[in-house]
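Sequence in, structure out. First:
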Amino acid sequence: MIFAGLGALREGVAGTLRITDGGLEVLDEKVLRESLIDDLVYTAVFGPDEATRDAARWLVRRAGAALGVIPASIQGLYEAMGRGEAGGFTVPAINIRALTYDTAQAVFRAAMTLSVGPVIFEIARSEIDYTRQRPEEYTCAVTAAAVKTGYRGPLFLQGDHFQVNAGRWAKDPEKEVKAVKDLIWEALEASFYNIDVDTSTLVDLSQGTVKEQQRLNYSLAAELTAMIRDLEPEGVTVSVGGEIGEVGGKNSTVEELDAFMEGYGEELEKFGPGLKGISKISVQTGTTHGGVPLPDGTVAQVKLDFETLKNLSEAARTRYGLAGAVQHGASTLPDEAFDRFPAVGTAEVHLATGFQNIVYESPHLPADLRERIYDHLRRECAQERKEKDTEEQFLYKTRKKGFGPFKYDLWHLPAQNRLALGRELEDKFAFLFRKLNMAGTKDLLGRYVRAVDVPLPLQAGLRA
């Protein structure tokens, strides 16, 4: 059900939620979990006007906090990994492009069943656009899923690939950097306390030394880090990630890591002594985002260089105190590859397209909806089709862009279809959590993660 306006919203939560001087009190958790949270998150996404949506989002976020679902930074755990106090697992960072409320519930169910600790929910700069999910909407959907499933604990929300676009940078550097800074600001206000800044697109391999090749990368990464430190809430140290090699490009090297970290440290010091730097480093070891589709639409097998990943992770920890290396573009790898990530000391692995593929290829996605999405892509993305692309290759590469225009249709799938899709996704999440050695890591949260409840100003429409 959608609340038709502020009056209906205030009336609908009466008796279940109560606004107090300190925020929000949950009067009836059973009603909240069984029905009201569904209506609140639906209104937060599809509400009839901005004021109603904003009020619903405030209620979702504060209801979560009242029940112990607190947005948090993973910084403390990553520092412990850098000291060698924690390890032997790889933290999954999950990009949710569609059915965010249902998919996040599947994540929480799998995590609670296996006593999994840190799981990161993330969305990239590009995904925000083509899935039509701004950061606060994403925060609300994931928070609501935590409330619905009964999850309690820190909630790790992450800005993935907050990336400087090289083409736009070449035309207008100031405008492009401002766009990234504006997004960082927006994400922090939405409680994204983990942010991966990606300036690796500016690496210039034509330069004569590795440090010169990395100069623009590390200089701008330091500038963005300093901005984050200036804006982060009191008591929160945002976990910032850097990147030394663009995913899909040449494989990274320890020499590049050393050059980046040396220059980054020098530049960061200029913004103020003792500023906390990055906690992890993203590298390239042979993957591409989404995988490489073959003419029949299947995905080519990737030859990921685990030895390079191992060497980079070890150097990142022992030389710079980082949690280790981060692997992007991994969700389409063969199943047998995933247990190698913890074996070589990978700190974090980013997973996205594999879950998208489950949704599109599931028998529980109505065939007529799938075909309507594909027809839309044939019309609206025709300019992206390369001359040698088969129909299957074209659709595979562009179908991620169908989620935004059809977000309403996907949220309105019959309940039995959404439940069945959720079970498929839950099985996949559970498989990955086991492979990444995440089962039984819940106690790490209490030891190394400090979740700070950052107050949110009361929305005007909810003032009595």
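Second:
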Amino acid sequence: MQIHLKFFASVREALGTSGETVDVPADVATVGAVRDYLIARGGAWAEALGEGRALRMACNQAMCDGAAPVAAGAEVAFFPPVTGG
């Protein structure tokens, strides 16, 4: 299944890219599973997206949690929490 990934702010800086299109295995069916799939790449991916990191996630431009389903062609975004001031 092909999905589109977007990375913002410090996540983008850590990964050195603002996005990519990837083919994920059929068992990667939620946003949380996408995150786990990317963490498994290791290196900067594991550091930027690791479970201890405070991250916000969105699927098709709607904020979501890791249980949100992902379908072919979905856009999944990862970004740090935003604070106002």
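Remark: The mean pLDDT is 94.
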